[in-house]
Amino acid sequence: MVRRRHGSLVLYHQNTNISSFSRKVSSTAGTLIGPFSDPGSHYHNAMSEVSKDLKRPSIQKRVFSFSKTSPSEIVRSKLSATEISHRALTYLPDDLLKDIPENDASYSLFQGFKASVDTAATKKHREGKNLLEESTAGGPNNVTRLSKERDRTNEELDLLGVRKSIASGEIREIDRKIAQLTAIRGVVLERLAKLEQEETQLEHDLLELDNKIEDIQYDMVEEGGSPIEAEEAEAGFMSESIYSKLPSPKGRKRQKRKAMPILHEHMSPGSEIKEMQCHADLITALDFDFPFGKLVTAALDDTVRVWDLNSGRSLGQLEGHHASVKCLQVEDNYVATGSTDATIRFWDLSRSDGPSLPGSNSVTHKRGPQSNQEEDFEDDMSAISSPTGPRSSAGTQDCHLLTLDSHIGEVTALYFQNGTLVSGSADKTLRQWDLSTGRCVQTLDILWTASSTAASEDSGWSFASLGRSSSRSNLPEANADFVGALQCFDAALACGTADGLVRLWDLRSGQVHRSLVGHTGPVTALQFDDTYLVTGSMDRSIRIWDLRTGSISDAFAYEHPITSMQFDAARIVSAAGENYAKIYDRVDGRHWNCGAGAEGGKEDRLSTPAIVERVRAKEGYLVEGRRDGVVGIWTC
Amino acid sequence: MSSDNLPYAADAESPLKEAELEVLRKQYDREGQYVSIQTKFNYAWGLIKSDKAIDQRYGIKLLTEIFRDAPERRRECLYYLALGNYKLGNYAEARKYNDLLLEKENKNMQAMSLKGLIEDRVAKEGMLGVAILSGVVIAAGVMGSFLYKGLTKRR
Known about the structure:
CATH topology of chain B: Serine Threonine Protein Phosphatase 5, Tetratricopeptide repeat
Distance between the termini of chain B: 75 Å
CATH architecture of the largest domain in chain A: 7 Propeller
Number of domains of chain A: 2
CATH class of chain B: Mainly Alpha
Shape of chain A: elongated
Oligomer: heterodimer
Structural class of chain A: alpha+beta
CATH architecture of chain B: Alpha Horseshoe
Radius of gyration of chain B: 22 Å
Order of helices and strands of chain B: HHHHHHH
CATH class of the largest domain in chain A: Mainly Beta
Distance between the termini of chain A: 42 Å
CATH topology of the largest domain in chain A: Methylamine Dehydrogenase, Chain H
Radius of gyration of chain A: 37 Å
Structural class of chain B: mainly alpha
Largest sheet of chain B: none
Strand order of the largest sheet of chain A: 1-28-27-26
Largest interface: A-B, 50 and 50 residues
Number of helices of chain A: 15
Number of strands of chain B: 0
Strand content of chain A: 25-35%
């Protein structure tokens, strides 16, 4: 067995040598075969390419040996240019000739040849035979004719058998090639993972250097100017509007990456990248900036934590909320969190101690499917067990920018973009905030607007929906957040509420200009792009609305209420009360499951994974938060 | 190998029709880089059956490739290489390949008959060669003797 293996290895090496030679051969074949009229120059071209191989003495010996040959052959092999090059091209080294294994194929090449050449002929034959049969009548000739017929049919059957084994042989051959290619793909993927690891390390170093340079420059300026001036400048800076801070690179350098990780795009969909024990309690909200970037999670244990998705390490906590955070959004380095303490806090992660991330320099984590999860796990657990320790909070204590506290009920949904933040609260209002001043610029009372719209419009469904919403409030589902989800773009705002309605607002007029009726349970998730609005609801359904017509364009339902949903051009990812995320592939219309509990997942888990509560997905990079505080990262 | 697994040399002397060869060539071209061994062989065998030396050479080239790429087909390839080289008149090669095959399968009818054919052909051409060579030698001897005579006469 070992010997055989060794043999095949040697063979493989030979094959690679040979194939490099044969590549040369095939590239010169055209020049050799084509122009026989002018062999001189082509011969030179060809020979200059094969001459390298010809310099090996054994080949020379072989090519020019003419023992036991006829004189005419000697003459030709010595004098004809094409003859010489042909011999060089078709030369087989002795070690190859010695290595001739037993043939265990079920058919010979010649049989294969006959089978494929005769295909057309036998088909014609069969048609003819059918005609013949019709004219068949009794007679003495008939027996011989029929036995002949039988022989031919037998032959045909044999041919068919050969053809069959040819086909299956070809399939085996292709399978082998595919297996080889997959193996190569695995190696390259590994290499890509390593490269990205190095890349992040370098970016990290770059950032550190940038910060050092900036610090030194700042110190030099400070030393040059009078201390009072500097203080004034500092004060002026602080009193400046927050908005001017947003795009400014002051303070800490904005962490903008030069390179984007692409590893997850090359892993097969549904494979696990990482699993982290982020909290000890149900994850209430999570979001991340980009694949392998920063993740912010919030849980019922009233903490908000920041994670480095690349290493799987905690970067610290966002401390300030007095109750658990129910919604949050991450955009670049800015984070908005809405809490049950009725406040919204706005954070800038780049103001943390940024690059000097705890422990990230000392340990390099191998990323990828085989990442050492147990080690991560222990580290993360230790970080959790000492949440007030200096390590976890030191890095992020400077992050807080703003507190928005006009709501009188818990904040259940928020969305910010371009300096405007819109929040929805259990006090049944939506508020629009100007992030540059930190002030509330508009308050939209959902019920008042709804009733006034209903009063002014005499279309039947508005009344119906109102009536339904009041009747619904008595149902057990009413413990859902009143404003389940919202998103704004420029002056357009969409919000989904507990009465199952999706309202489209115009922020300039403060009016609802359209209501989308359909959901029979509280809306818990909502997102729109330029064409579609997708909503998920406690009624277990996901609805896709066409914003141009205001009508429903697609809908489907799962087994349990939808708790979270996000979509992009390729897929709709949702959490639907299972221990895996539900994914609807928008391109080929396929539903599939991705996550720890999905079939085909790991069998050797110690316990069944908890139910997925929240999902976020960007560019095929899926992050899901579960009821037991575990966050799983997958490709989708 | 049973007797009908290999064609006899006579089979190689009957060329395919232009159109038939064209079909094989098209199949070979269509499969491109990932051509299957059977397709390659079909085309190569079609080429070897041809009566043009160019085709035969190309056929041998393809067979050489199969020999290199598919170890399990080497034994069969030996025979076709021997046959092709025999048709081209490269008797040394033909004999080498055929003898190798006979070494492995000393009861192979096709190879044995091919061996006989090669031997005949070499012997015939060898006789011819000896005849020509001896003719040249005689002519040279006659010329030499004339020259010698001339020289001695002049003296």
